[in-house]
Amino acid sequence: MDVHIRLLRYFAAVAQEATLTGAAAQLYVSQPALTKQIQHLEAQLDVELFVRSHTGVTLTDAGRVLAERLPALLAEWDTAVTDARRAAAHAGRVLRIGFVATAANEATQRIVAEFTRRTGWRVDMRKSDWSDPTAGLADGQVDAAFLRLPFPGQEHLRVEVLFTEPRWVALPSTHRLAGHDRIPFAQLWDEPVVAGPPEAGPAREHWLASGERGGHEARIGAIAHNVDEWLTAIANGYGIALAPEGVTRFYARPGVTYRPVTGISPSRVGVAWQPERDSDPVLREFIRCALAEAHIE
């Protein structure tokens, strides 16, 4: 009998939350879909794992045994997968670098070229959408990542800030403010916003500028999981969105106008890696190259 690892992760979330609703929110799946997956796991194991009630779910004796042993099992599995991926990459002298949208910028080519010159290693750049805000770093798919700060789990990683840049606003070209040279942020507080997915956590809140709205809650006009969806939603008039200045260089789009915003803090870009990789000489060399070459010309 083979049980898919995803089902075990679903079970662990329900056991931790003690409610299907809470676990579904944590996993970003619907409650009916989660219920079906738990039922599937119970059928595969041929045991009842939870007792359901109107107040939530309670572990059975069998469920309690599984819940006690599962965290160590999942952690060991994650470590094994990460080590296997890392061994394959190192055998080929390849460093895997993740990035989200414009966190990789004009300086990236210089960083990669200098790193290759110093080490002879190749860099494999891997782009992630906004539903994976660590760009594969959290689950070991990459060795390091260029990321916009803040991001979920940042406190558990090593992060070096590479540069900062102003936040601008992306507007439908027909918007009443699109012709202004500069726009005070307060004039945007009541506008609908094209936001990232909820799983982006603090990154989503940063681009909503939730703490800089003077108590005005952001009104979500649309959800986007990547830059293409984001630009399309803005061009279609579903909302405006804050964006790093670099977006204006990388993502020109008919129907979308970018303008500087005043009265708001800048965006920061950093390079991040797992603390256990601190002693890796190849990764250390990449970080040194990133810090030396990160300035934007």
Q: Give the total of beta strands.
A: 13
In the CATH hierarchy, the architecture of the largest domain is 3-Layer(aba) Sandwich
Sheet bearing the most strands, described? 5 strands, mixed
Largest sheet, spatial ordering of strands:
4-3-5-13-6
- Please mark out the parts with pLDDT under 50 across 5 or more consecutive residues, or reply none: none
The quaternary structure here is single chain
Q: Given this structure, which CATH class of the largest domain is correct?
A: Alpha Beta
Average predicted local confidence, pLDDT: 89
Straight-line N-to-C gap: 57 Å
Give helix % range.
25-40%
- Structure classification: alpha/beta
Task: Please give a handful of descriptors for the protein shown.
single chain, 297 residues, alpha/beta, Arc Repressor Mutant, subunit A, D-Maltodextrin-Binding Protein, domain 2, 3 domains, 5-stranded mixed sheet, 4-stranded mixed sheet, 9 helices, 13 strands, 24% strand
Please, could you describe this protein's structure?
By secondary structure, the protein is an alpha/beta fold. It is 38% helix and 24% strand. The model has no long low-confidence stretch (mean pLDDT 89). The relative contact order is 0.14. The chain contains 9 helices and 13 strands. The strands form 4 sheets. A 5-stranded mixed β-sheet has the order 4-3-5-13-6. A 4-stranded mixed β-sheet has the order 8-12-7-11. Strands 1-2 form a two-stranded antiparallel sheet.
